[in-house]
Amino acid sequence: MNSNIGIRKIQNLDLDFVYKAICELENETLNFEIFEAIFNENISNAKNLYLIAENETEGLGFISFHTQNLLHHCGLVGEIQEFFIHQKHRGEGVGRLLINEVLNFAEQHSLKSIEVTTNKRRVENVLIYENLGFTLSHNKFTIYK
């Protein structure tokens, strides 16, 4: 693992990095103005944790984590919404550093659980999440309109 990797909270100046990462992750060009408004709303919400991993010269990846009180858990639950590691930095432990920060946040806030969903087309992510300590325990159903 590279020791010159820093983790910090995402700020407004990270908008372009996160925008490009999400567009790459979703394989489409998203509306920048709408994206920017949602980005600013989300990073300013105290219930959310947005982190970037970086070295001295570039962003390496980021994670977004939202929390909410859920009746069926009778407490606070967190969900990883986006998790991106730049292709050339995968396998360097960047993802584990970001996940460890999420785990620390979850412990500090007494979360009942941490959830993550991955698209079925990203088959490799199942093994990645299992290696990070997650258990494949649910099915998720969606309707797109």
Automatic annotation (TrEMBL):
Gene Ontology MF: a single term: acyltransferase activity, transferring groups other than amino-acyl groups
Matching PROSITE patterns: GNAT
Keywords: Acyltransferase, Transferase
Name of one Pfam family that matches: Acetyltransf_10
Domain (N-acetyltransferase): residue spans on this chain: 5-145
SUPFAM superfamilies: Acyl-CoA N-acyltransferases (Nat) (SSF55729)
Origin: domain of life: Bacteria
Name of the protein in question: N-acetyltransferase domain-containing protein
